[in-house]
Design a protein that fits this description.
This protein is of the alpha/beta class. It contains four helices and 15 strands.
Length: 225
Amino acid sequence: MKKYQNVTIKGTKEGLTLHLDDTCSYSDLKEELDQKLSESSKSQSDKLISVMVQVGNRYLTADQKEELKELIRQKKNLVVDTINSNVVTKQEAEAERIAHEVVSIARIVRSGQVLEVAGDLLLIGDVNPGGTVKAGGNIYILGALKGIAHAGCSGNRDAVIAASVMKPSQLRIDECLNRAPDSYPEEDGREMECAYIDENNQITIDRLQALMNIRPNLSKLQGGF
């Protein structure tokens, strides 16, 4: 009878992918991994090989991750790139929830005030000149944006800014900056607008409807607007 394999090694363009069974004991897994890598390293050249480790639904402590990394590094030319698991800690899950949470606030952000949230911001109200709104994700303003708006401030270049009236003194998405023009045209039935980073690494302002094509995943994400 063929023995079940707890470790499967597959070669890719980037290097090696190690698929580790998530139902066997951790000690059995380490033992078989050591054996398989020792056999595999005999036929490899001296060129450094990147290794990606997939552990499925197994939760690994920080010490166990270090043990696996050290075991793999001992095989002369293997370098651990990432260890991927489907399991997250409560702390990681909470951080992910906060990052994708839409915070709804009804108020006016006046001059000198700063309103900041970790995830997406839905502001029902205006941002007056001198006021600032910041969000780790997207910013949606059901009102007039006449102050400063900084979306994606935690490093999200795909974040967008939308406002019923788009007359900001400054727009910023991630590290990309767009200052206001000297003057805005008179309002004449203008539609709600959005701002995003385009393919030229510039912040572009367009009709809100453009987001359906530019950021199609917005409607699929939790809290999409």
